[in-house]
Amino acid sequence: MKFIENYIDRLENVLENDLSEEEFEQLQVDVSNMENEIERFIPRSDFDERLMAKLDRLIARVKVEFDFYDPDAALNMMFPNRDDNDFDEIGDFMNRDLNW
User: Fold this and answer.
1) Rounded to the nearest 5°, which phi and psi values hold at 66?
2) Model pTM?
3) Which of 12, 42, 68, 69 could bond to 63 as cystine, CB 3.0-4.6 Å?
């Protein structure tokens, strides 16, 4: 459980201090790695729920405060109906009509 506490300490430290451009880029990588490690390799039942909830809140806060790029959100803004079942059918129809 120590590494979860280390993640929390790291994120709290980041929120209290200004970051250089290089540190910001590293932070994005670190947060992504934290999320991947937590989701893929660590069963949440093995950890204190309060610590995991705190870590989740800190990750969300860091992403908002540092305006992380979210590719899914960007795609949803460009193509709000992209999750519809017939979304690709429209593209197929247009390509067929244009003989591409």
Assistant:
1) -100, 5
2) 0.64
3) 68
Which amino acid type is present at position 20?
S
Question: Residue 21 pLDDT > 80, yes or no?
Answer: yes
CA-CA distance, 57 to 79, in Å (whole number)?
Answer: 28
For the chain, the domain total comes to: 1
Distance in angstroms (rounded) separating the CA atoms of residues 89 and 68? 32
Query: Which structural domain, as residue segments, surrounds residue 65?
Result: 2-98
pLDDT, tens only, 27-44: 989 998 888 888 776 666
Angstrom distance (rounded) from CA 95 to CA 98? 5
Residue 71 has pLDDT above 90, yes or no: no
Q: Where are the beta strands (DSSP E) in 3-91?
A: none
